[in-house]
Specification:
- Pfam families: DUF7575.
- The chain crosses the membrane at residues 30-47.
- Residues 106-132 form the DUF7575 domain.
- The chain is mainly alpha-helical and 144 residues long.
- The protein folds into 2 domains: 2-91, no CATH class; 100-135.
- 53% of the residues lie in helices and 0% in strands.
- It has 6 helices and no strands.
- It has helices at residues 2-15, 19-23, 27-44, 47-52, 56-66, 69-91.
- Helix 1 (2-15) runs antiparallel to helix 6 and helix 3 (27-44) packs antiparallel against helix 6 (69-91).
- The chain is elongated, with a radius of gyration of 23 Å.
């Protein structure tokens, strides 16, 4: 399931940068990649010619013929980088805050994905792994 999720996140990011991160519920990265992509479109696409296009086919033709190579490179780079980042993050690379000293949590973590858990739930809300209930520590058997 993890590989399928990684491939799906990468494919969505190729279609529209940020969509794969939205699938992973990494909202900040989703907004950043979508914003970068939309900003590059606004900078590199000929908006005056696009406004004159009557159909979507005309708009695609204008974009493919009139966009310079720098614009094509920028859009391709953002899409490819978003796809690679979404794929690696869905696979758990880099590991989440367990190795760094500043962002580590004191609560329980998921044994599957390593993210912080809500103590009230019986499953990980990040990767949906079912968790075994924690057994309370028994008192000294001689006291019973």
């Amino acid at each position: 399931m993890t590989w399928f999720r990684a491939l799906l996140a990468g494919a969505l990011s190729i279609l529209f940068p940020g969509a794969g991160h939205a699938l992973l519920r990494d909202w900040l990265r989703a907004v950043v990649f979508a914003g970068l992509y939309l900003s590059a479109i606004a900078i590199f696409l000929p908006m005056d010619q696009l406004a004159a296009a009557e159909t979507m086919a005309d708009a695609v033709t204008i974009v493919s013929e009139d966009m310079d190579s720098m614009g094509q490179f920028a859009l391709s780079f953002i899409g490819l980088f978003a796809a690679i980042d979404a794929t690696f993050r869905s696979l758990g690379f880099p590991p989440t805050a367990s190795g760094s000293g500043s962002g580590s949590s004191d609560g329980p973590t998921c044994p599957e994905c390593g993210k912080e858990l809500d103590e009230d739930l019986e499953f990980c809300h990040w990767c949906t792994t079912r968790l075994e209930p924690a057994e309370p520590e028994d008192a000294d058997p001689s006291e019973v």
